[in-house]
From TrEMBL:
The lineage of its organism: Bacteria, Bacillati, Actinomycetota, Actinomycetes, Kitasatosporales. Residues 184-200 have a biased composition (Basic and acidic residues). This is Cryptochrome/photolyase family protein. It comes from Streptomyces liangshanensis. The keyword Ribonucleoprotein does not apply. GO terms for molecular function: lyase activity. Pfam families: DPRP. Keywords: Lyase. It comes from the Bacteria. InterPro entries: Crypto/Photolyase_FAD-like_sf (IPR036134), PhrB-like (IPR007357), Rossmann-like_a/b/a_fold (IPR014729), UV-DNA_repair_photolyase (IPR052551).
Amino acid sequence: MTPPPRPHWLFGDQLGPHFLDPRHGGPDPGAPVLMIEARSVLRRRRFHRAKAHLILSAMRHRAAELGDRVTYLRTDTYAQGLAQAAEHRGAAATRNRRHAEPVERKAQLTVCHPTSRRALDFVAARDDVEILPARGFLVSHDHFAEWAGRGSGKGLRLEGFYRWVRERHDLLMDGDAPVGGRWNLDHDNREPPPRDRPVLDVRGPWLPREDAIDEEVRHDLDRWERDGDVSFVGRDGPRRFPVTRREALSALRGFVTHRLPDFGRYEDAMLAADPVMSHSLLSVPLNLGLLDPAECVERAERAYRAGDAPLNSVEGFVRQIAGWREYVWHLYWHFGEDYRHRNTLRHTEPLPDWFLDLDADAVTANCLSTVLAQVRDTGWTHHIPRLMVLGSRALQDGWDPAAVTDWFSRCFVDGYDWVMLPNVVGMSQYADGGLMTTKPYTSGGAYINRMSDLCAPCAYTPTHRTGARACPYTTGYWAFLHRHRSTLATNPRTAQAVRGLDRLKDLPELLATRTQQRDTPP
């Protein structure tokens, strides 16, 4: 007798239709769906309130779409949810048993490869769950291993991986060559923001309309907080990101049509009054599984081929998704769990309370206060504030990289373990000693001043290294180079900067200023 389709378990970041597609190693055709809302996930760590709202709203919206096909359980833990689901299956089997016994199968439940090691270990330890291949990415684990094996000791650098993905998936290619003759147009995408206006002259991002499900989620979160069951950080204002497939497609269309053309040139710029600028805001629906990366890059390429968006913008967007996102996903698994504890620079300082609490009002430095307020209010900033304001502050101050990783994972609406572990340990904090990047990414105030409008109204001056108006990023930068001089002097990409220490006649005064600054928020 043909066995009935096994139920398929959807995690809260596997919400798009491709996670239920039975083709190419997917779940059984017509599989019933199991979803588990486990309160312990929110209780375990202090997440951003907007992130908790977003994920629960997305899960409940997906359950509403699936209707009678889904069993949606609200339990304390995943283990309790699976036990309840097993009881339901057992009762159903008893009711439906006929003269012939169904074919027995060891695994009674399927699930797509989870996105965190903790979740993978949990499902892998269960005999009743079959783990299907990962979905939501362009490159499979096997294909990445094939590419990584070709390296011959040259390292797993992004640029080589990105070119390989472009070739393999025929993205922005003219035959065997990249469109336009260059693989990477990053140098065309580093313009400072316009100095004559506070916001870019582009249409604002697509925004959703909240509904009854959002109201229910907010009511539940309020109640759980009042009961002392959970604790959050940040503010939960009106929802800004998609939680359904339909909303995600609207956001993608809106970006490609109205914002992609201007995305490239100001990709690395910052404006205090325009935190979104021309960025896509698609990391959230992508990381919830509502969008597939292939449809995002293919739609962008069609815009270029149709003459609706310039190559530098399209290539920059494709590099973010087909390059960096895929690269980070695979390095998360490739480097293994020990990567989490890498700390080459031996940074051990705890995160200060003002940072943990997103207390932007406690901070004097305008760039840091502005960006921290953006995180507090929305749970999001684009990649340059993350790297060159938040991450740079942590690196210069020597904060524990594991704690920094946890903070980014909890406080960003698009933050998941697979996203933040390589991004923070490797890219932001250089804690892996160069496995992922060739140098630490930090700078003085001059970079922030060039790439933003954040310095003019600040109490500090980016060119001042000493005294009351000394910029914490400028003093922090030189103090960081001084502290790690022996390590950075042997790195070809930082050696020249280290030699610059010898030209600083005020280095003792700078270090004294730095010591005074560290006693208070920047």
